[in-house]
Design brief:
It holds the Pfam family Response_reg. GO terms for molecular function: phosphorelay response regulator activity; transcription cis-regulatory region binding. This is Transcriptional regulatory protein CutR. With 217 residues, the protein is an alpha/beta fold. It has 8 helices and 11 strands. The protein has 2 domains: 115 residues, Rossmann fold (3-Layer(aba) Sandwich); 90 residues, Arc Repressor Mutant, subunit A (Orthogonal Bundle). 40% of the residues lie in helices and 20% in strands. The longest helix has 13 residues.
Length: 217
């Protein structure tokens, strides 16, 4: 899942990003509304965690722009105000969910995952295919009933492949969904991660390489 965190309190923004990365999400971070508009213009995000009171461009205007562009990106709006009227106003301008500060990180993570499931055709919370069972919320993977321990990026790649439901996912798409914008697009990190993932999942291999196209399960 690709997430953009937009928060002008840099310590909070970086802490949220670090936590989400530990949950196997690809996370970019910006600290003002103008930078947020630049990012959403060039990257496809599943979820934007958006502080409402931002410098340069207000969070409300960033949210309106996402709606105006007709993007599938979901918006989780953050604010220091917990007033019902503020929550209603945020939802009316296009936010998909609303979370007042301070918040529990476990709740933030759960809300981000729930919104991420709504960016595509509805899928069950626990994904199952080819003998693999993947639970994004618990960060657990089982192959034929046996638990498989995966690193965050391996888990992220497997989740993208599972969500594609048998269609081919290119290396570029995996790079976009499982890594942040600081990753070198010419690196072989996707190929290496897929190789490691295949080994950990065991035989028979379930990740198929489609020459010239990408990978599928």
């Amino acid at each position: 899942m690709r997430v953009l965190v937009v928060e002008d309190e840099q310590l909070l923004a970086d802490a949220v990003a670090t936590g989400l990365r530990r949950e196997a999400m690809a996370v970019d971070v910006v600290y003002d509304g103008a930078a947020a508009l630049e990012r959403i213009a060039v990257n496809d995000y599943d979820v934007v965690v958006l502080d409402r009171d931002l410098p340069l461009v207000h969070g409300d205007d960033v949210c309106r722009k996402i709606v105006e562009l007709g993007m599938t990106t979901r918006v989780l709006m953050l604010t220091a105000s917990g007033d019902v009227s503020d929550r209603v106003e945020g939802l009316e301008i296009g936010a998909d969910d609303y979370l007042p500060k301070p918040f529990a990180f476990t709740e933030l993570t759960a809300r981000v995952r729930a919104l991420g499931r709504r960016t595509t055709v509805a899928l069950p919370p626990v994904l199952e295919r080819a003998g693999i069972k993947l639970d994004p919320n618990r960060r657990e993977v089982f192959r034929d009933g046996k638990e498989v321990q995966l690193a965050p990026k391996e888990f992220a790649v497997l989740e993208v492949l599972m969500r594609s439901e048998g269609t081919v996912v290119s290396a570029e798409q995996l790079l976009e969904k499982a890594w942040d914008e600081n990753t070198d697009p010419f690196t072989n990190v996707v190929r290496v991660t897929v190789m490691t993932l295949r080994r950990k999942l065991g035989e028979p291999a379930v990740i198929v390489t489609v020459p010239g196209s990408g990978y599928r399960i």
